[in-house]
Amino acid sequence: MSPDSPRIVVTRALPPAALEPLHSVGQVWVSPHDRPLSVAELHQAVDGASAIISMLNDKIDDDVLDAAGPNLRIVANTAVGYDNLDVPAITHRGVLATNTPGVLVDATADLTMALLLDVTRRVSEGDRLVRSGAAWSWDISFMLGSGLQGKQLGIIGMGHIGQAVAARAAAFGMDVAHHSRRPVEAGGSRRLPLDELLATSDVVSLHCPLTAQTRHLIDAEALRSMKGSAYLVNTARGPIVDEAALAAALAGGEIAGAALDVYENEPEVHDGLRALPNVVLAPHLGSATVETRTRMAELAVENVVATLLGKDAPTPISV
Ligand code: DGY
């Protein structure tokens, strides 16, 4: 590879086999750190880059684009969500932005069901009890949870992941309703206005992207409008929920519980949530299977290779 061949920056180590195709189109720099790059490190790393393979915790804004300079042709985000990218700033410079839709649908839907079952059946709470060594014994009224059959799951955001959750929940006997911006072909699921969905659902599960419109969509008022027996599940993006309002609603018994995979100021978690027994807290594991993460890396690489060869990238972000 000649020294003036395109510089490709990968901000976090990805499976080496997935990165292999990059070596035929440019010089590859992979972060040596087992943590996200700091802002200063990111600025330094992208200097002169033609392609950046970013992770969801890399904020790609005007400053990063300035640091990269005029060679930059693509920012390939290794995630379906792209709220970490300033897409207008990227496209304004004639740079392509891509993401990894499709390949993480099943993994994220599976984790949503795992969290939903965990919080409604108190699995993590029971695990903590057993590990604590505290006395317990089977009892007819011991640690009762809430069954799913016939209960309404209200899905907010009926894209591919929302639909995959709907199919799984239907198999558990749940009655699925959804709220989405556009009507979608969604099996037997009814489309409801947001206020009706919140007021009637036994479990509300979030699957919409984080945008200016969805930031704090679940605020104090939304939580107040939910049933006292309802649960909230969030495997989408943390800032869709006002975490302080959620902690207060849970502490005040306004809803029965919550299961969260994502946080407003990730990786920090509101102290009020950590203190509550009826909250399941996962560390952003939605797409965290070997198969899915490998496929995400491969798709990010496919986007870069196609772009640097002057071909159409498979999954551009359309604005
Ligand atoms: C995504 O791709 O947006 C997921 O949050 C990654 O786990």
Descriptors:
single chain, 319 residues, alpha/beta, Rossmann fold, 2 domains, seven-stranded parallel β-sheet, five-stranded parallel β-sheet, 12 helices, binds (2R)-2,3-dihydroxypropanoic acid
CATH class of the largest domain, anyone?
Alpha Beta
Helix and strand run: EHEHEHEHEHHEHEEHEHEHEHEH
Fourth-tier CATH superfamily name of the largest domain? NAD(P)-binding Rossmann-like Domain
Number of strands: 12
Strand composition percent: 5-15%
For the biggest sheet, the summary is: 7 strands, parallel
CATH topology of the largest domain: Rossmann fold
Task: Return the CATH architecture of the largest domain.
Answer: 3-Layer(aba) Sandwich
The value of Rg in angstroms is 21 Å
Count of DSSP-assigned helices? 12
Derived from helix and strand composition plus strand pairing, the structural class reads alpha/beta
DSSP helix fraction: 25-40%
